[in-house]
Write a structure and sequence with these properties.
2 copies of one chain form a homodimer. The first copy, chain A, is an alpha/beta fold and about 500 residues long. Chain A contains 17 helices and 18 strands. In chain A, strand 10, helix 11 and strand 11 form a beta-alpha-beta unit. Chains A, B: Its EC number is 2.4.2.57.
């Protein structure tokens, strides 16, 4: 046991960090990454031990203030530090490492201890890695999904026709929800859409919507907006939905893995938590997105449908073409503008955007009984074309706290560079990854006015000197940096008709 | 890219920590655990991103000062922060997760990036977990072992007969090396023994030896002592041997796994690095030690021998009884005293200690040609009994910077509690884990005078009121705490002859 004085410190290390001067640890049985309990007369706190030379002095212990819940220690008071029991989950994680199936109770314990921040990043990484390697069966996934939902806020609705649309993995420019949600809401279907901010893409749906209105709503506000309009388009982080998910994602990102059990549970737990009864899951397939081919997409689709059945959620999956951006605009403001233009004048909008928006909405119109099977897409188009979707969209904007705008009122980055074709030829490729990186380099998603507008898409004919795309940024320096990157990574590829020239027979 | 001012900070988070105020991260594409590069005109540093509310202010970035190597930034200077490439290892770790065999080059890259602190704890945990689940073949283990050795100091010797004895997993009271090493050194065999401080046990060999002399020697000092005496007994941490090992152990401990490939490489890399040609590996088997049964021990032994062959190190393994402590003394000072008594008067010493010390030394005397096969143990006993081992031991103590002591000069904890048998009966069990915990509670290994002295061992007959064991501590409070723990965990079990009484027919 060590005797120390408490000092408040604030650092997000996943689990609570408890920081001690390395001099105090020398020759003791305490090591960095040990799980320790800090106790005093006024309370106690559990944490993971870290050592420092300078952050706290000899005799001090830095304790976390970020999560004040459960911490009743006072700064400066004398505390003692001792080894704490390992959380129960460790043995279940070990079991999964050994290739065994976990019982419902074991899964629940793991999720509970993730949510209560009892597991260190090392322990979480061991859990994620072992589910990646050894997998989970459907019963395990169902239990994990349910528990992830139950450990956060659970939203319930009086209506039974509550639906959602969800895309797996990012296609740049994926702003279709700004069309589909108001179409469905206008048809009287309840669609409480929560979405993420950009994780790997240059603009998440929440980032795009934030150009037009407030997206940080809590549960009460969300329910009020949905009651008033049938729909909403808000950031999921404002509501405490399936909080284990974010914690798990934070350890998946560094090792670039997304084990299928976690992917399934992550998506479906949020559906359970928001009281969804029907969900359409969009699985983009192609180069530069998560799912590389149709067979893989179909396999994942079947898992989603099976999991949905076991959770009493009717799921339909759609494989969509993800090989190039959706529409022409990438970046928050450009995408908001393109969506608003499409709602205002759908006939002039990019076909890919309209088609995706009305086909996904159409499925839910059919599932919800608003349209006969086969007529959903037609009804969706009618709602869009009649202006009812735009009207509903503006109503949602107002209810979320914004003021409706015309497309031309949306401000774009004032530093602009047009990139032109060096030759006559055809667009043979548009590279999702390159576009994503160029738009991020231009400042998105933080700089909402940063983005890239494609002037041509795959298969289009271009002449030398034609504009291929335009880069926007709010900062001259960022613009230059993005242009330099674009020169190296070729967001758009043009080739002449002659693909190859063979000079010897 | 973020623009910030550098602030020096010191925290050991495995890889370099780069700490930014969470306000600065909001709406950006930077997330905690991202790998980032901090750049300025004067230099750059690679790190893992963490967020804080208070540790650094908005606009500041905390950069690590612990490892000054490669850090040429000045405090307060303007820097920019951007995403850094993932280390090459990540893809190889992913490959191991996918159950594939790694090439020599891939293994080397992983070890190199571990040593240069490029991998975060999450990434390390993914590596360790995936080798635990998917294993490694012998070629992979050989490559890992070699690279772990090469990335640290490599000690070479003019003599070819350089030997070592190594125990896997802790048996409490395992002080035999204080006898075996001087026996071998007295026989003219070179034995540069490096050992660890206590990891899970109450006293590592280095902790025990430190009661008698200095154990923190650097490479030059170690070589000088070995040149003068043929042997040494020093702490491995004073020399930079296979530095990847400590980093890996730090992520294994929290999840309580020790994948066999890592165990093999960890032991053998240090043998390679210290230029060992013959090694005896002691594998204690029994309750409360790492290896639970003989079959498991034999399997591990074969792996050690095979790995040794591929590394040009002749390895012999010995399975020893690890079901109760070795000798009667547990705790640094008590063990040093018991070892010194055994060197002074081996005939009165505990049989288990003498037997282990001379049988392990005997094998190396035979391997080294000092004794005929079958005569090693006899020669070891002669060296011990003649006083030559004690003389050599004192010579080593002097060369390492200490002054030889008589056993009775060793100070023990002045707070003492004798624990007596409540009944007439037999010692039916001595619990390694309970003893370890009681001795740690009494203050070991930090309090060198804390410990436990067994007065009886398994099978001994005791009368009611006989002393079973004595607990020592340098602090009254710790003694009480240890006595309280002992009352709950029963380090020694006594039972009457009548094991069970059946009262109904």
């Amino acid at each position: 046991m060590l005797f120390l004085n408490a000092k408040f410190i604030d650092l997000d290390l996943g689990a609570n960090a408890v920081i001690v001067n390395e001099e105090d640890l020398k020759g003791t049985s305490y090591y960095p990454q040990d799980r320790v309990l800090i106790e005093s007369h006024s309370g106690s706190v559990l944490g993971i031990l870290y050592s420092t030379k300078t952050m706290v002095q000899k005799g001090e212990v830095g304790i976390p203030v970020r999560k004040m819940k459960g911490i009743s220690l006072k700064e400066g008071e004398e505390v003692n530090l001792r080894h704490a029991e390992k959380p129960e989950s460790i043995q279940f994680i070990k079991k999964k490492m050994d290739g065994q199936v976990l019982s419902p109770n074991e899964i629940r314990t793991i999720i509970d201890e993730i949510v209560s921040k009892k597991l260190s990043n090392i322990e979480l990484a061991a859990f994620v890695t072992s589910t990646y390697v050894n997998g989970m069966n459907m019963e395990e996934i169902v239990e994990m999904t349910k528990r992830m939902a139950e450990t956060g806020d659970m939203i319930s609705w009086e209506k039974s026709l509550v639906v959602d649309i969800h895309s797996i993995g990012g296609v740049p420019g994926n702003k279709y929800a700004l069309l589909s949600i108001p179409i469905l809401a206008a048809a009287g279907i309840t669609i409480p859409k929560t979405s993420s901010r950009a994780i790997t893409s240059p603009a998440g749906t929440a980032d795009v919507m934030e150009v037009l209105t407030n997206v940080e709503l809590d549960e009460e506000e969300l329910k009020r907006v949905v009651k008033a309009t049938n729909g909403c388009l808000v950031w999921g982080g404002g509501v405490n939905l399936a909080p284990a998910d974010d914690i798990i994602i934070n350890v998946e990102r560094p090792v670039s893995i997304d084990p299928q059990p976690q992917l399934l549970a992550s998506v479906m737990a949020k559906k359970v938590a928001t009281g969804i009864k029907y969900a359409v899951i969009d699985i983009p397939v192609g180069k530069g997105v998560k799912i590389k081919n149709e067979a893989e997409g179909a396999k994942l689709a079947r898992k989603f449908i099976e999991l949905g059945e076991l959770l009493n959620i009717r799921v339909e999956c759609v494989l969509t073409y993800g090989g190039q951006p959706l529409g022409r605009a990438i970046g928050p403001a450009l995408e908001a503008k393109e969506a608003l233009e499409a709602l205002t004048d759908p006939k002039s909008a990019p076909k890919s955007l309209i088609e995706k928006a009305i086909s996904l909405a159409g499925i839910l119109l059919e599932l919800g009984g608003s349209a006969q099977i086969g007529d959903g897409q037609k009804l969706a188009w009618e709602i869009l074309e009649s202006g009812r979707a735009l009207e509903k969209f503006n109503q949602i904007i107002v209810e979320q706290g914004g003021t409706p705008k015309k497309p031309e009122e949306i401000e774009l980055g004032k530093y602009v560079e047009e990139v032109r074709s060096p030759i006559d030829g055809y667009i043979v490729g548009i590279n999702n990854t390159s576009i994503t990186n160029v738009v991020k380099e231009a400042g998105a998603p933080r700089d909402k006015k940063a983005g890239l507008l494609l002037n041509a898409k795959i298969g289009n004919k271009v002449k030398r000197g034609d504009i291929l795309y335009t880069i926007y940024s709010g900062s001259e320096e960022r613009l230059n940096s993005a242009v330099n990157l674009a020169r190296r990574v070729y967001p758009v590829n043009v080739e002449g008709m002659m693909i190859e020239r063979i000079s010897k027979f």
